[in-house]
Specification:
- The chain is an alpha/beta fold.
- The protein has two domains: 133 residues, no CATH class; 245 residues, Purple Acid Phosphatase, chain A, domain 2 (4-Layer Sandwich).
- The chain contains ten helices and twelve strands.
- The strands form two sheets. The chain has a six-stranded mixed beta sheet with strand order 1-12-2-3-4-5. A six-stranded mixed beta sheet has the order 6-7-8-9-11-10, with no helix packed on it.
- It is elongated, with a radius of gyration of 24 Å.
């Protein structure tokens, strides 16, 4: 019964995806054929199907430059698919309502449908161009957080970053800007809250350069990281060695005492893609039982979906994962899915403080629309 349910779900998803692609392909063809008559429909269909299937080409044992080119096409096609679908649906709804209220004559003139399609194509291209530009920018966000009853009289400056997705498009170039931004802040500690990699270590084009970049991060008490859901799989061992060579202290359900005033705990993600080579997430109570609770306790946990498991023994939780939806309307979805999907949050007066960053990189599409890439600076202080 379970297998049958899975088959039905897969068929349903494929049907919806196929239907949406047919709709987009048909509307684009209508507009292009009206503007440039004589377009060969067979050639158009073959080219469209090829573009849609480029995601499969990236997984074939082909020369690197072919897989790289296919990766660029498939990544941007994801953005085209989302915005072309939304904008064509909006345009057709306007045309339908216009016909109902008799603003648009019936039968609808071919030029009206042609120009509506042309506007959608231009808007889609514009959104992707803006999203690419916006994803390359790096914003700095800061929070001051006061913790009661702990000794941080002079404050502790924490730089929080996440979601590098090394191996994804433009990720390694973005790392240069991230490191430069971190060093400009002169932080006491740097926390990397997961998804350092993009599933496959071998996708990183210049790992030695990335290692050197991370080694150049300057902080008073070091650079620490926890693993996210994209940091597992068959190349997990290589990911761990990469971090060791980079001078990054990986905390896999472990803790580190920082400057005798703060305990930093790093959690393993509970839903890693491909697993963590047999390692699994511990119960937080088992970790807390080992530490001195007189010190401030900060937890790095990649996915903020699990912040409800932390109680009064934790002062601050640092998360990423959500990308704040990355593109509109994804931010509306993450806002509905999570107790908090971005920014500063505290459920109650005695609850842990929570900071969720939108991350520095991108997943899938190398674009951001309605969200920003960011480095977060948290100044942690004791209340009098």
């Amino acid at each position: 019964m379970r297998i049958l349910r899975m088959i039905v779900i897969v068929l349903l998803v494929l049907s919806i995806f196929g239907g949406a692609n047919y709709y987009i392909a048909r509307r684009v063809y209508q507009s292009l054929n009206a503007m440039f008559s004589g377009i060969n429909v067979k050639v158009y269909v073959i080219l469209y199907i090829f573009i849609v299937l480029t995601i499969m080409i990236t997984r074939l044992p082909l020369p690197g430059f072919i897989r790289t080119a296919a990766g660029w096409v498939s990544a941007y096609w994801m953005g085209v698919f989302v915005y072309a679908l939304l904008l064509f649906l909006a345009a057709d709804l306007v045309l339908l309502l216009g016909g109902i209220v008799k603003i648009i004559p019936r039968p609808m003139p071919q030029t009206v449908r042609m120009w509506s399609g042309a506007v959608v194509i231009l808007l889609t291209a514009g959104v992707l161009a803006y999203g690419t530009f916006n994803a390359a920018r790096l914003k700095h966000v800061s929070y001051d957080i006061w913790i009661e009853g702990h000794s941080l009289n002079e404050g502790m400056k924490i730089a929080l970053v996440s979601d590098f997705h090394l191996g994804a498009l433009r990720s390694e170039k973005k790392l240069e800007a991230v490191v430069k931004g971190l060093n400009s802040l002169e932080p006491d500690i740097v926390c990397i809250a997961g998804d350092i990699f993009d599933n496959d270590y071998s996708a990183i084009r210049a790992p030695d350069k990335a290692i050197d970049l991370l080694k150049s991060v300057k902080s008073t008490y070091g650079v620490y990281a926890c693993m996210g859901n994209h940091d597992g799989g068959s190349t997990y061992g290589e990911m761990v060695r990469f971090l060791e060579q980079s001078g990054v202290r990986l905390l896999n359900d472990e803790y580190e005492i920082v400057n005798d005033s703060l305990i930093l705990i790093g959690r393993l993600d509970s839903s890693p893609i491909g697993g963590f080579n047999g390692e699994s997430r511990k119960d937080i109570a088992d970790i807390l039982a080992l530490i001195d609770r007189e010190l401030s306790v900060v937890v790095m946990d990649h996915n903020p979906q699990r912040i409800g498991q932390y109680g009064e023994g934790i002062d601050l939780i640092l998360s990423g994962h959500t990308h704040k939806g990355q593109i509109f309307p994804g931010n509306l979805i993450t806002r509905a899915m999570y107790e908090t999907d971005y920014g500063y949050y505290q459920k109650g007066a005695n609850s842990p403080h929570v900071v969720v960053t939108s991350g520095t990189g991108t997943w899938g599409m190398p674009i951001r629309v309605g969200t920003s890439s960011e480095i977060v600076v948290i100044t942690l202080r004791s209340e009098e």
